[in-house]
Amino acid sequence: MRLVPFSAEHLDAMAEVIFDDDVRRFTGFPEPPDLAWLPTLLERYERGREEGVRAGFAVLDAGGAFAGLALAVSIDAEGRQCELGYLVAPAFRGRGVATWSLGELTRWAFDDQRMLRCELLIEAGNAGSRLVAERCGYVCEGVRRSVHLKGGRRGDQAIYARLAA
Question: d(Cα 105, Cα 16) in Å, to the nearest integer?
């Protein structure tokens, strides 16, 4: 597998992913799914890469198929900390893609971006994502209760972090 910059060539695959029930439940993507939103997402990450405040990567398998996204949702270069996130396309789940993606994204943040702290915000009920975080050395620091997630829905959000040291 490999990470490549998220680009327009990945939008067709993302157009399928945003309709997945888990993506709809556990991400901040619009509900109901909105295909017109995808170019806005891409633009936000392309501009963020230029400004140094966020970065998006497509996760590709050995054959070049789109397996998911690995995101630096926010980068605080001065504070040397960032929020990371990831999602896996349904056809690639259960194959270690999330663990690999988060591991590579974390390495990129610490080694290439010189971050000292990486943080994950995970819906408390997302047991699979929480397990991925723990496999990658992240520690749960607590739970924010009744956080607005999207629409009228509120839920609890676990905060995971990993330090460079």
Answer: 23
